[in-house]
Amino acid sequence: MSIEALLSRGDGSDEVIDLAAEHLREIRDDELVWIDVVAPDEDEVETLRRALALDDDLASALTSEISRPEATVRDGAVEVVILAPPEDGEAPAPIQVLVGAGWVVTRHAERLPLLDDRRERIQDQREIGLLSPVQFLISVLDWHIDSYFDAAESLDRAVDELDDAALRTEVDLLGRMVDVRRRIARVRRLLGLHREVFAELARPDFFASLDEAEERALAQVTDRLDRAGQAISHAREMLIGTFDVHMTRTAQRTNDIMRVLTLVSVILLPAAALAGIMGMNFKVGLFDDPNLFWVVVGVMVGIGAGTLVLARWRGWL
Asked: Is 139 part of a structural domain of the chain?
């Protein structure tokens, strides 16, 4: 679909090059070429093969299916596959990174803001050309971890919204909580798949030789991966707290309803008892006076009013 090649020099200058129009000359030690490929077709793969002098193994790697994180040592290059965290309701986006001598190729199925934004940022006076291909790979991994930190922040905001809804006792809150819980679980599962890849990269037999700066950078990016996992776990703990708030508010609302029903029962029970007594089928002279009906009604109303006053005074209402 598209090929974008950026030549970065050690003096901070950058140049966009067209691989289809010219052959890539020999890359100097103070230069680095980043080639970003979006869903390449056969012609674009052939263009990359000719420009970078790729063998059949590397050329076939650019057309292979990428679905899960992995790290592989190939002849003349290193291949790393990572998964960008999904947006709401979307699948994760696989990113293939090939690292060779002086060049780095990133391949993905569709355009990703994760890479497009970084391409714009590095085209300033940063001395990208002084980075080794391994260091640039670590930078890509660092950008990748940034996307998981962004996902953790998005999950935190979603949990905060659920907290507000829980305090308002909104209807169908439990369904929303389950949706956020699934999002957290999906992001945690994807991030967990990368731990094996980062551990593979850190093994001494993966890269033939790493200098002190590369080893330090690789250790730092691995540490950031762990912190990203902790941030997502924190969102999960916050969601558990939101569920506790929801259950507490539900129990409080149930108690309020039961208190009102109990108070209504207390108000009506004396009146019902009095009505039952006065309605007993006995010949008593007291019942010959018709004005007594209104006296009984007044007593019932007085008992109810007295009960309400007592409830208000004791703080039951």
From this structure: no
Q: What is the pLDDT of residue 15?
A: 86
What's 38's domain CATH number?
3.30.460.20
Q: Is residue 141 part of a domain?
A: no
Point out which residues pair with 31 in neighbouring strands: 9
Residue range of the domain that includes 29: 1-129
DSSP letters, 81-98, are EEEEPP-TT---EEEEEE
Count CA within 13 A, CB hemisphere, residue 91. Answer: 7
Of 102, 129, 156, the one marking the end of a domain is: 129
Strands 93-99 and 103-108, bridge-based pairing: antiparallel
- Residue 208 structure tokens: 């033939």
Using CB atoms within 10 A of its CB, is residue 280 exposed (0-12), middle (13-18) or buried (19+)? exposed
In DSSP terms, which residues pair with 82 in a beta bridge?
95
Task: Give the number of domains in the chain.
Answer: 2
- Residue identified by tokens 């029970």 is 269
Mean pLDDT of 97-108: 92
pTM for the model stands at: 0.78
